[in-house]
Specification:
Strand content: over 45%
Low-confidence stretches: none
Number of helices: 1
Number of strands: 18
Radius of gyration: 32 Å
Oligomer: single chain
Structural class: mainly beta
Mean pLDDT: 96
Distance between the termini: 143 Å
Order of helices and strands: EEEEEEEEEEEEEHEEEEE
């Protein structure tokens, strides 16, 4: 009897690993936000994240509002940032979704200031009070942006003693980092004091 040994060949297990970057949604507050990390989904439970070497930066940072996919702050994950460190597996990496940071616009409140004049006087200058500023943003800075967007005001017609609504003729619905809410004001015309 002649005998010859045989060979058992164990081939690597083919595995597909889907990478999904984390994402987060915040409201603008003037400060920097950050989102980090990712999750994996393996086509076989034998393959775990411990077998992955990652050489990129799974991080997205941003400050200003970014409300559409074209403006989101992206991590920029790519397949070549991931490698397999276990020879028992033949791994294909797939970026299912890149990680991103979305920052929504904050609400800004613009109220027309109430005004008072005496009968027969010219109307005072219309002014507004701005609230809801975030971070280091100032009312003066945002007022300039509103004015650049065409902000203007008018009032109900009439010159007799009484109250008249002051309203916006035009006001931007949104500006950089803010959605704009508006509130009307009131002009009060007082009787003219006369000594006879």
């Amino acid at each position: 009897v002649n005998r010859t040994t045989g060979t058992l060949t164990i081939n690597p297990l083919a595995v597909t690993v889907d990478i999904t970057g984390n994402h987060a949604e915040y409201i603008y507050n003037g400060n920097e936000y950050v989102v980090t990390g990712y999750t994996i989904s393996s086509s076989d439970s034998l393959y775990t994240e411990d077998y992955i070497t990652f050489t990129g930066t799974a991080e997205a940072r941003g400050t200003n509002a970014a409300i559409t996919p074209e403006t989101w702050y992206m991590m920029g994950l790519t397949e070549d940032m991931f490698s397999n460190n276990n020879d028992n597996f033949d791994v294909k990496f797939n970026i299912k979704e890149d990680g991103y940071l979305e920052i929504l616009k904050a609400e800004l409140f613009v109220k027309i200031d109430d005004k008072v004049k005496n009968y027969g006087e010219a109307d005072p200058e219309w002014t507004v009070t701005i609230t809801g500023m975030q971070g280091s943003d100032t009312a003066a800075q945002l007022l300039a942006e509103l004015e650049a967007g065409g902000m203007s005001m008018t009032r109900e017609a009439g010159e007799d003693v009484g109250t008249y609504k002051i309203s916006f003729v035009t006001l931007p619905n949104e500006i950089t980092n803010y959605l704009v809410n508006r509130t009307t004001g009131t002009l009060t015309i007082n009787p003219l004091a006369v000594t006879v």
